[in-house]
Amino acid sequence: xxxxxxxxxxAGKGTQAAWIVEDFGLPHISTxxxxxAAAKGESQVSGEIRSYIEGGLLxxxxxxxxxxxxxxxxxxAKEGFLLDGFPRTRPQAQALDNxxxxxxxxxxxxxxxxVGREELLRRLGGRWVCPGCGATYHAVFQPPRxxxxxxxxxxxxxxxADDRPDAVRVRLEQNWDNTQSLVAFYEARGVLTRLAGDxxxxxxxxxxxxxxxxxxx
Length: 217
Ligand code: AP5
Ligand code: MG
What we know:
binds magnesium ion; binds BIS(adenosine)-5'-pentaphosphate; globular; five-stranded parallel beta sheet; about 15% strand
């Protein structure tokens, strides 16, 4: 199963990916997570990645495509994978087509989580993440049991550097046209499922499960 989760910043890709990878036994390939990990290093490339992320800018296609190509070649991705945040541009989508053609595997489904701008701003403004295990929360929509502390590992929660209002504005601008272009690209191929991502987390979860399994459970 080769699945893509497509959606603007804050659409709920990471939130839904967390259970999809468990239920379907797929590795979670999040380019955002990979870049945040790479940005912690001391090298010049780490510094460049950090400045793209913190400014809300897209990392150049060439580097992005290279890290995904390397990740997909690893053993745990041989039976399938869930892509979260990739592809994000047409050249990335074309590169993914080439990668899949090389290994003779089709794209199973692209799930597009459609959410309006106001709701995205509410979500990104209230998001808290765990630097320990990566769990995601929201101050109102998905609060942790104890304020400011991760349910899973007890680490103090943080806000992401790119959730500052100025970076959020750039992220939404950078991704808007690209996302519409990818929606058209995959819709024309008949692999796109468009879901209302502005419903409560559980309802989005049920809709995704129905789309991937066809049983509505
Ligand atoms: P990335 O980490 O992928 O960020 P993003 O695409 O901007 O998406 P987010 O992670 O912000 O949102 P999400 O859809 O995962 O939402 P979440 O589930 O957390 O990328 C970061 C950066 O890396 C990019 O800006 C770029 O610099 C670089 N990069 C990454 N991939 C790249 C690529 N392919 N090419 C080039 N550069 C790349 O949910 C958000 C909040 O809402 C949470 O608080 C959550 O609790 C809440 N929430 C979720 N669902 C719901 C719901 N249904 N109802 C209410 N609240 C909800
Ligand atoms: Mg995410």
